[in-house]
Structures are given as C-alpha cells and as structure tokens.
Amino acid sequence: KNMDVSERWLTMGEVLEAHKEGRLLEAFGAGTAVVVSPVKCIMYKDQQIELPTGEDAGPVAKHVWNTLMDVQYGKIEHPWSVVI
Fold this sequence. Notes:
Structural class: alpha+beta
Helix content: 25-40%
Largest sheet: 2 strands, antiparallel
Strand order of the largest sheet: 1-2
Shape: elongated
C-alpha cells in the first residue's frame, strides 16, 4: 500500500481547523523503539480534541506499524534493517 507522505511542522491552528472540518481522522507517534502509539485525544489550552479512532489505531497507524515490524524482523528489505 503506497501513500504520499509529507513531513512538515503543523500548527495547532491547522489541527483545530482540520478537527472542526472533520478532516482530523487519526494521530499517532512512531519510531523504531515504540513502533506506533495511537493518540486518543489532544489537549490544547481549554479544548479537548477527541480523535475518531478512540483507543484504537487507525488504518494509517496500523499500516505504519505493520511496515516497521516487517523491517525490524527482516520480512522486507530496507536500509534501516541490518541482519546480525
């Protein structure tokens, strides 16, 4: 599954606007140590922004998690993965 990725800074204004417009579908943190951690809500000033995925990981987070695990276990070749 291919997807276009854009890495850039987001402002909280953009996050709030996306939530208000129904475009904020999921959020997660990712890295090689934690793999993927879904975000249930974002607290900003006096607002609590609930993510539609709730306690679960959304489809993008699940895809990233599966891909990172495949790299870590050598199921797919990647420059980050070195067999010892």
